[in-house]
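Structure tokens please, single chain.
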Amino acid sequence: MPAHDIVLFEVIDRQSPADGEAYIKALYDLSERSQPALLIMLVKGMTEQDHETRKQAAAWFKQNRNRLTVFAKGVIRVEADHDHGDGHIHNHAEDVENSTFARMLPFPMKHASTLDAAFEMAENWPPA
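Here you go.
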């Protein structure tokens, strides 16, 4: 946790079973908060979760859907823009901010290309 009201999740490459367990534990730790935090999710590489981790995370979201605003006030997903090999730089902002996941959240979900940009965005939360 970089600050008392920011929780940093790092999802880098394919998750090992230990990574999956740590992710689920972090979700449960988050749901024990009494003050809402801003979640910053750093995503790098081909992030894959095993079936069991996805199943446990889905159960956690279902269990906590009505309580999300108690412990979270927003999400910033950090994912670098990149070239798909055709010379076109893919900006993830539209994908993130208009995703089905973002639409189901009771608070804003934004995109940043760098961790520094995410922390700068966090200083001015909520977004305009």
